[in-house]
Amino acid sequence: MAARLAVAFLAVSSAFLAVSGQKFNAIFSFGDSMSDTGNLCVNGPPAGLTLTEPPYGETFFGRATCRCSDGRLVVDFLAEKFGLPLLKPSKQGGADFKQGANMAIIGATTMDSGFFQSLGIADKIWNNGPLNTQIQWFQQLMPSICGSTQACKSYLSKSLFVLGEFGGNDYNAQIFGGYTPEQASGQSATIVDAIGKGVEQLISLGAMYVVVPGVLPVGCFPIYLTLYQTSNAGDYDQYGCLKRFNALSAQHNSLLQSKVWSLQSKYPGTRIMYADFYSHVYDMVKSPGSYGFSTNLMACCGAGGGKYNYQNSARCGMSGAYACSNPSSSLSWDGIHLTEAAYKKIADGWVSGAYCHPAISA
Predict the structure, then answer these.
(1) What is the pTM of this model?
(2) Among 102, 214, 96, residue whose Cα is nearest residue 161
(3) Which GO terms fall under molecular function for this chain's record (predicted)?
(4) Which entry of 5, 100, 272, 290 is 20 to 30 Å from 159 by CA?
(5) What would the pLDDT profile of 34-73 be if each residue is shown by its tens digit?
(6) Cis check: omega of the bond before 358, within 30 degrees of 0
């Protein structure tokens, strides 16, 4: 199996050597809070949403922009690297989306509401923007972006699509709904299959370049470390992360990588790239100093509570919470999402191929 994947990787890389320094005409992004650039806030932020308050956005924008970070996200850095404007949220009325649009929305899941209803956890999903819906939003924009179906196939074949990450909120809903990581892992194949179908939908519309990120090592995130901390040292790995939750992410990613390679074989004229969110972030946790971080398991923005600086009752953006003096020295921004500094490093790794297989730029 490994040999076949290696051969497939080399074949894909060789086929696309000519696009070194690839200049895409647009970027189209789908996903959740790791990539939403404002869709949730277009019609006014929902009540209680803290990311519209300072210090969100302070590092780059100087104000909160509905991004879940102190500044730019991975998709912002990808746009900059390819000379494109920062992606506008697709729900922004009257915008020109010819150079890109962002369908991602905070809280998005891979699966539709029926999936969560069948598990008895529909109340854990508060946002109606799953993967299928986001693709429908994109299809509604297509006439204004590229015109006819045939014209769109040509235009979109020169665009970069970033599908995800998806899956994180599907697992969050299960965990917060009382399922164990082991029980949640029983749904991984279903979730990954749905992501694969999303990739195929985009290809049918004309996509040729599709980045498919895996999920993150949430067992290293302050929110999980706080809510599910135990007194059993055996529950943690040598870096202080909760092993059971990282095992769930790792299983998802293993299935997703296999799905990506299967799709690449099925659609040999495309470039389907697996972006390894997990390994890159975990490497930052293991060796923070190598990436310029002085803290790895503690949130930069919080109310100063507990070992990980995370409290549900005093989250970033709430009264009493404040940002650390130098966010660029932290991996975690608010205990749930990463800092701009981390996202920039991740974008670099995707473009170069250090953490994306094959690289976005061959």
Answers:
(1) 0.93
(2) 102
(3) hydrolase activity, acting on ester bonds
(4) 5
(5) 999 999 999 887 877 899 999 999 999 999 999 999 999 9
(6) yes
Q: Distance between CA atoms of 64 and 52, rounded to whole angstroms?
A: 5
pLDDT at position 22 is 63
H or E stretch covering 214: none
CA-wise closest residue to 284 among 355, 336, 223: 355
CB atoms within 10 A of CB 29: 29
Helix, strand, coil tally for the chain in percent (to 5): 45, 10, 45
Q: Using CA atoms, how far apart are residues 155 and 149, in angstroms rounded to an integer?
A: 10
- Sign of the Cα torsion 260, 263, 156, 353 reads positive
d(CA 169, CA 131): 12
Residue 29, beta-bridge partner list? 102, 162
How far is CA 127 from each of CA 32, 98, 323, rounded to the nearest angstrom? 10, 27, 27
DSSP 52: G
Is residue 27 over pLDDT 70?
A: yes
Collapsed DSSP state (helix, strand, coil) of residue 252? helix
Q: How many CB atoms lie within 10 A of CB 194?
A: 20
Q: What backbone phi and psi angles, to 5 degrees, belong to 260?
A: -60, -45
First to last CA, the chain: 24
CA–CA distance, 285 with 247 (Å, rounded to integer): 16
Give the residue numbers marked as catalytic. Answer: 33, 334, 337
Tell which residue, 80, 93, 106, has the closest CA to residue 27: 80
Closest CA to 55 of 324, 329, 343, 342: 324
SS (H, E, C) 17-36: HHHCCCCCCCEEEECCCCCC
User: What is the rounded CA–CA span in Å between residue 136 and residue 112?
Assistant: 13
DSSP letters for 107-151: T--SS-HHHHHHTT-GGG------HHHHHHHHHHHHHHHH-SHHH
The pLDDT of residue 126 is 80
